[in-house]
């Protein structure tokens, strides 16, 4: 069975499949983000789509940071 794990970080014993970057305890969140491959940047962009429905398609909600 494929694990589909590309990158991760951990503390302690090497986890399942021997993958990931080992960190020492109490690392800052920024270190975890980088070493786990989760230091993404989220950008805003317009979204366009085509729908065969006629009329109101619903509501888009925005959430504060």
Tally of DSSP β-strands = 2
By DSSP (H or I, 4+ residues per run), the number of helices equals 1
Q: Give the SSE order as H and E letters.
A: EEH
- Ends distance: 38 Å
Query: Which spans have pLDDT < 50 for at least 5 consecutive residues?
Result: none
Helicity level: 10-25%
Largest sheet: 2 strands, parallel
- Briefly note the structural class of the backbone: little secondary structure
- Largest sheet: spatial strand order: 1-2
Radius of gyration: 20 Å
Proportion of strand residues: 5-15%
Q: Could you report the average pLDDT, rounded to the nearest whole number? A: 87
- The dominant shape is elongated
How would you portray this structure in words?
This protein is mostly loops and 65 residues long. The protein has a domain at 8-39. 11% of the residues lie in helices and 9% in strands. It has one helix at residues 29-35; strands spanning 9-11, 21-23. It has a two-stranded parallel sheet. It is elongated, with a radius of gyration of 20 Å. It starts with 8 loop residues before the first strand and ends in a 30-residue tail after the last helix. 0% of the residues are buried. The mean pLDDT is 87.
């Amino acid at each position: 069975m494929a694990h589909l794990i590309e990158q991760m970080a951990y503390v302690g014993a090497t986890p399942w499949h021997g993958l990931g970057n080992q960190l020492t305890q109490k690392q800052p969140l920024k270190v975890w983000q980088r070493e786990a491959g989760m230091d993404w940047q989220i950008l805003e962009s317009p979204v366009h789509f085509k729908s065969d429905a006629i009329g109101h398609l619903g509501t888009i909600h925005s959430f504060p940071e």
